[in-house]
Amino acid sequence: MFSGRGPSLRELAVQALSSVERGYDLLAPKFDHTPFRTPDLILDATAEGLRPLGPFGRGLDVCCGTGAGMRVLGPLCADGVTGVDFSAGMLARAREAHPGADWVRADARALPFAEEFDLAVTFGAHGHLLPSERPAVFAGVHRALRPGGLFAFPIGAPPPIGSLQYWALLGFDAVMRVRNAVWRPPFVMYYRTWPLQAVREDLVAAGFSVSMAAMPLLGRRKDGAPRYRLLLARKAA
């Protein structure tokens, strides 16, 4: 599926009926050949938005997967980069692709760092974190950053109500809720659980000051609004 090197429908079905951790362990060898990997265009737009705010010392990629975020952190962070993920399979692929980085297996809801980083990013993991889990994740990132450190991630504009994308995402989330109600272990993956206002409130509650920047490389919607914004959460100096 997706390409000759991507997973088959059977492999995706087995993944979807597993836990999040086990599912990504299974998918890891073919993950970079699926649409689930963060596109380079989003990574490059993030790097463009962060470049004027640097230089940075040490960088952290939260829920790093196979290491796509190194495309952003590598050129921006002078003192090295670390990726953290709870899937051993994804980390194994990341180590192969980026042997110069540090890789740590840990749960994003309980990050094992204290004032070690100047920049933290995350890509593509929002749907795997329930709203009730955001405060623990944001508190852990805040703790991991040095004073004045920055936590940044792109966040997409919600699709217009009634659009094909709106109904597709609504339908996907509904199917996942039914799946998790009748099957164990749950596979947490939702598209509509990180509304901007709620995310901002949780970041502020964790101790960050929050601002946003447009991401011109990713274009604008028909109503003129940016398709994506770069959310910038700063820890007090």
Which helices and strands appear, and what pairs or packs with what?
Layout: H1 9-16, H2 20-27, H3 40-50, E1 59-62, H4 70-76, E2 81-85, H5 88-97, E3 102-105, E4 117-122, H6 134-144, E5 145-156, H7 164-182, H8 196-205, E6 208-214, E7 228-235
Parallel strand pairs: 1-2, 1-4, 2-3, 4-5
Antiparallel strand pairs: 5-7, 6-7
Helix pairs in contact: 1-2, 3-4, 6-8
Notes on the structure:
The protein is of the alpha/beta class and 237 residues long. It has two domains: 1-36, no CATH class; 40-158 and 195-235, Vaccinia Virus protein VP39 (Rossmann fold, 3-Layer(aba) Sandwich), CATH 3.40.50. Helix content is 35%, strand content 19%. The chain contains eight helices and seven strands, in the order H-H-H-E-H-E-H-E-E-H-E-H-H-E-E. The chain has helices at 9-16, 20-27, 40-50, 70-76, 88-97, 134-144, 164-182, 196-205, and strands at residues 59-62, 81-85, 102-105, 117-122, 145-156, 208-214, 228-235. It has a seven-stranded mixed beta sheet with strand order 3-2-1-4-5-7-6, sandwiched between helices. Strand 1 (59-62), helix 4 (70-76) and strand 2 (81-85) form a beta-alpha-beta unit. Helix 1 (9-16) packs antiparallel against helix 2 and helix 3 (40-50) runs parallel beside helix 4. The radius of gyration is 17 Å and the shape is globular. The mean pLDDT is 91. Residues 60-149 form the Methyltransferase domain. InterPro entries: Methyltransf_25 (IPR041698), SAM-dependent_MTases_sf (IPR029063).
